[in-house]
Each structure stands twice: as structure tokens, then as C-alpha cells.
């Protein structure tokens, strides 16, 4: 069907009205001819299934990038979190510590296993796990006789947790780390790649992430047994015999060979895409440097992949609120979003215990994520920066 039959074109009711500008999105997929050629090649190869040479190659390439020995390509980051948690023994009667400031998938994956989530609040400067608070929480859980299966730190908006401080806390408590690096592909901490810090790490290739397969994820680990276990669970826990033999319940979580091909093309462009996001971050930083009461989240982290540039506004000093800028940009058809609404405020997780300081709630109130996609054209970037500048100028 011709879409023009159903959808009136903008301004068609009044031909003399100026046409509305195209919306600028937060982090749209950045795909082009390279992805197209890889996808067509995979399609023509005949491997149209959730296995094949593109999946194998994509796994090797992501493992290399993450500095891990193994990688398991999966249908989503959420699936990778789920299987990683199962691989670490999460289940009924056990506890998993997760940040309250995260995307819901981190917590959902815990609930899928039957384990009980416990929330931990964040540091105001980065939005990442508050490490001293985590240490105290792990002591408290141990004293209460809780059996903690894992801690799942999230590398918020592509800035790694300070693993130099977090790793000894978890090791001291005897609790393995599953790194939720869904947003952090290409980021580093102390020169080491995101994804490599826990017993296993998880990436997402959702459409809005730093690279995309439209939907997909990956579990990376140095632990060969854990990788084998996750791969086995992702293919319906099928036993290696000719007939279909299953001794336990599995999942259908493998990544399509076609989508892995798209991921390989994206990976080839990752460094250029990171450079573009970093450049956008620097331009925002320059613009806000002279605005009182505004800071960038994780601004001082040189290893951040700059997935989403996020400002934090102190309304008392700035004289305006994050929501005011959001409204101003909205009228110019520029998308912004608040920082994640904390999980302890979500009706789905009402009553879930946690160590809550209020830091995540303040970031939710005062934070704003800005258009950060590597595919933003210069014209779009200029529109956003001009709109921010005019907002600030009116309040200077
Ligand atoms: C995107 C994201 C996920 C989930 O990834 P999907 O591929 O969408 O399932 C998990 N955790 C965090 C922090 C994310 O941002």
C-alpha cells in the first residue's frame, strides 16, 4: 500500500505553512551500505538460521574486542543477562544485588531466574554503583544469612564502574560479578575493555545501542565452562545425541546468522562511531562549561564510550530545571529523555529491599540525556547545539 494514501504529509492542510523539521532522535541506529552488503552476503550464503559462520566470526571478533577468551551470541542483552545469572547459579532462595539506577532488563533477568533482587544506590558523579554502600550491603546480607549469587554492576551510559574499587569488595565477600556492559561496548577502565571485569560480561546490540544488530546480545567470559553452559541453555538445553534429548529446561536465545553479519559490519565501524559520539560529548561539554549549575555525568572518565551524553542540573544554581530544557528541545523536535527511573520506584518491584541513599532519585529528577547518536548529521548536531545555546542564552 502506498503510505501517502493514509498518512497526510506534514503541512498538507496549509501549503503555505513552513514544513516541520525532521525529529532528531537520542540514539538511532547508524547503519548504511556496509551493513547492507554484509547482510546480503549472509543471506546469499544460505545460512539463514540462528547459527552459522557469521555468528562464529562475530563471537570471535567481539571476544577480541572485549579481551575475553569466549563469547556467546544471543538474541538480546536481556537473554545474555538471564543465562549469565543462571550460569552463576542464581535461582530460588538466592539473592542478586543490582543497581536501582539501570534499565529494567537488569532486574527482570534476576526475576526470571527466581532469585530475589536487592537494590543498591549509585554515586552521584557517575550514576554507577556506590561501592562503599555495596560493601556495607554485602556485609548486611551475609549477617542476615542471605545467600548472594552475584552482583550485577551496570556501566552507566557507557562509563565503566570503578572496578579497581568494586572487584576487591565482591571478591572479599566471595560473590561473583556479572558485568552489565550493555551500554558500554568500546569503553575502558584503566585501559581494560568493558565486558572483561566480572566472571562474565554482557553486551546489547539493541537498535539504540552503540552498535546494533537490530536486536541481539552477547555474553563474554574467560570461563570456558560458563560459556559452554550458556550456549547449551540458549539452544533448548539439547543433549549432544542424534535424537532430541533434554535433561533440563532450556531457552531459544541464539542470535540469527543474518543479524550477526550486521553486527560484524557495525563492529568494523565501531572506532569511528565512538569517535563521533566522543566529539558530540565534547561539544556539549564546551557549551555547558559556562552554564552555572550544570555538569556532565561521568565527565572526567576518559574511557567512557559516550553512548548517551547526560547532563545533571542543579536547579537552585542554574535557575532552571532539566525538564525546562527538555521542553525547549521538544518544541524543536529534538528528543531527550530523563535518566532511568530508579527500579525501587517502579510499581513492578514494589517492596523489593535495597540500600537507597536518594542519589538515583536525584539523578532521575535532575538528569537529562541528549541526542548522542553516531549517525547524527552535522546539520542535526548543529540544530541541537543551537537550540541548547539559545536556551542557555535566554537564561544567562
Ligand atoms: C539495553 C540494556 C539492556 C538490555 O539489552 P537488550 O538487548 O535490549 O535486551 C540491559 N541492561 C542495560 C543497562 C541496558 O541499557
From TrEMBL:
Keyword Disulfide bond listed: no
Comp. bias (Low complexity): 8-19
Keywords: Pyridoxal phosphate
Pfam families to which the protein is assigned, alphabetical: DegT_DnrJ_EryC1
InterPro entries on file: DegT/StrS_aminotransferase, PyrdxlP-dep_Trfase, PyrdxlP-dep_Trfase_major, PyrdxlP-dep_Trfase_small
Superkingdom: Bacteria
Chain spans, region Disordered: 1-28
Protein family per UniProt: Belongs to the DegT/DnrJ/EryC1 family.
PANTHER family: DTDP-4-AMINO-4,6-DIDEOXYGALACTOSE TRANSAMINASE (PTHR30244:SF34), TRANSAMINASE (PTHR30244)
Record protein name field: Pyridoxal-5'-phosphate-dependent protein
Amino acid at each position: 500500500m502506498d503510505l501517502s494514501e493514509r498518512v497526510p504529509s506534514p503541512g498538507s492542510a496549509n501549503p503555505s505553512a513552513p514544513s516541520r523539521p525532521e525529529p532528531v532522535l537520542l540514539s538511532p541506529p547508524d547503519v548504511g551500505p556496509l551493513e547492507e552488503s554484509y547482510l546480503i552476503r549472509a543471506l546469499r550464503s544460505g545460512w539463514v538460521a540462528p547459527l552459522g559462520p557469521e555468528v562464529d566470526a562475530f563471537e570471535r571478533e567481539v571476544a577480541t574486542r572485549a579481551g575475553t577468551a569466549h563469547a556467546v551470541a544471543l538474541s538480546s542483552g536481556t537473554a545474555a543477562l538471564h543465562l549469565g545469572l543462571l550460569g552463576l547459579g542464581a535461582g530460588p532462595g538466592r539473592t542478586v544485588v543490582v543497581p536501582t539506577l539501570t534499565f529494567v532488563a537488569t532486574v527482570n533477568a534476576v526475576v526470571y531466574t527466581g532469585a530475589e533482587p536487592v537494590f543498591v544506590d549509585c554515586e552521584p558523579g557517575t550514576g554507577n554503583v556506590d561501592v562503599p554502600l555495596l560493601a556495607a550491603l554485602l556485609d548486611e546480607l551475609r549477617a542476615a544469612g542471605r545467600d548472594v549469587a552475584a552482583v550485577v554492576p551496570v556501566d552507566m551510559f557507557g562509563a565503566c564502574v570503578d572496578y579497581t574499587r568494586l572487584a576487591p569488595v565482591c571478591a572479599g565477600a566471595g560473590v561473583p560479578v556479572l558485568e552489565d556492559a550493555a551500554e558500554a561496548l568500546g569503553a575502558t577502565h584503566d585501559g581494560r575493555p568493558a565486558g572483561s571485569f566480572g566472571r562474565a560480561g554482557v553486551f546489547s546490540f539493541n537498535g539504540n545501542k552503540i552498535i546494533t544488530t537490530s536486536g541481539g546480545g552477547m555474553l563474554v567470559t574467560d570461563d570456558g565452562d560458563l560459556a559452554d553452559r550458556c550456549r547449551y541453555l540458549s539452544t533448548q538445553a539439547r543433549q549432544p545425541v542424534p535424537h532430541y534429548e533434554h535433561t533440563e529446561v532450556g531457552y531459544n536465545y541464539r542470535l540469527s546468522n543474518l543479524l550477526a553479519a550486521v553486527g560484524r559490519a557495525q563492529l568494523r565501524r565501531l572506532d569511528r562511531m565512538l569517535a563521533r559520539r566522543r566529539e558530540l560529548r565534547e561539544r556539549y561539554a564546551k557549551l555547558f562549561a559556562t552554564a552555572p549549575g550544570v555538569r556532565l555525568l561521568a565527565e572526567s572518565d576518559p574511557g567512557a564510550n559516550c553512548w548517551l551524553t547526560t547532563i545533571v542540573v542543579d536547579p537552585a544554581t542554574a535557575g532552571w530545571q532539566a525538564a525546562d530544557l527538555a521542553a525547549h528541545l521538544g518544541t524543536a523536535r529534538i528528543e531527550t529523555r530523563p535518566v532511568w527511573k530508579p527500579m525501587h520506584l517502579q510499581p513492578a518491584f514494589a517492596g523489593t529491599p535495597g540500600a537507597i541513599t536518594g542519589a538515583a532519585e536525584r539523578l532521575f529528577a535532575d538528569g537529562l540525556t541528549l541526542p548522542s547518536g553516531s549517525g547524527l548529521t552535522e546539520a542535526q548536531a548543529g540544530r541541537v547545539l543551537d537550540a541548547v545555546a539559545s536556551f542557555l542564552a535566554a537564561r544567562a
